[in-house]
Specification:
Number of domains: 2
Number of helices: 13
Radius of gyration: 25 Å
Shape: elongated
Largest sheet: 9 strands, mixed
Structural class: alpha/beta
Number of strands: 21
CATH architecture of the largest domain: 3-Layer(aba) Sandwich
Amino acid sequence: MQIILGITGGVAAYKSAELARLLVNQGHRVRCILTEAGARFITPLTLTSLTGEPCYGANPDQGEWRASPNIEHIELARWADLVAVVPATANILGKAANGLASDLLSTLLLATRAPVLWAPAMNTGMWEHPAVQANLARLRSFGHAVVDPGEGVLACGEEGSGKLAEVASIAEAIQVHGTPKLRILSGRRVLITSGPTREDLDPVRTLTNRSTGAMGIELARALRDVGAKVQLVLGGDLAAPWGVETVRVRSAQQMLEACEARWADSDGLLAAAAVADQRPESPSSEKVKKGDGAETVVLVRTPDILARLSASRRQDQWVVGFAAESEQHLAHASAKLAKKGLDAVLVNDVQGGRGFGAQANTLTPVTASGPHPAIGPLSKDQLARAVVQWWAHQLELRPD
């Protein structure tokens, strides 16, 4: 993606350098535009060094406008796939909301047809002022996106709302609003299960598995980015993705209840969770002490979430399952597909510990027509995006 990063005059301008570096590391091209006030907080040399691209706008050595054969605000407006203003002050919000153009950034904001994203940062009193909120409402009416500030201790020493959102959240918002949408998935309500479940033996010990939930979280991000309305039912400890409605659960029963409450309003399900298949028949309310003799735990089956949701689905709903197999993975995936009445199974060969954690992974789709070409090996974020593209193609081939 080609991103214009506008930087205005707020103390949080130093965080724009971190954002620029993060976006470049994610593979984007970033060109920065400094306002005159922004250039008092951060230098063009810093931004150019981090992005490998020229820095435009105010420059203490050259001034706002430089001799150039090109009309910069038009050239940059055409170049950009997305324009992000980070941090956005009350001044630039007011200018853009009312069509004022007095420098390169405000002029470009009028000229561009790319998506525009704002990350405001200012004092709490300024943030809550009716004029600022009215300007934000008007910008939203133009189709612009806003990453609302968080709460905390501000540079002025006061505590409240107005603190620049986390850099990682802004980067995710940029990804969301700059990614082309897929017609077949845009607006679709997709339910995703992810992460391990934990079944308590006693207040200290649990039965669980080696899943982290990373794959399901990346699937939620990928679907969010192409326009789907995602609901994520998440076990484990990983952070939920920005902009995705997330329900935290612990046990298989809790995951089932959360899914059943949402399934009727969903268009489809991606069941990526690693649900514990057994739980103790009688969990102890107190920590179990060591004994001298043999110890026995009686296990019972947990509910089969995927089978129950598939059995209760409407004709227009689709269900995609995941499988982690250590041997005969294609045969086991085909059996799971048929037994549970699924539309597809994406199987992962986990022999030797493959597939867990942050390492690259490979998934092989299996449908009623048989195995499809393997997807991967790819990092989990790239693999999730490839899976979403594959499934979107499968949906396009389905009869209406």
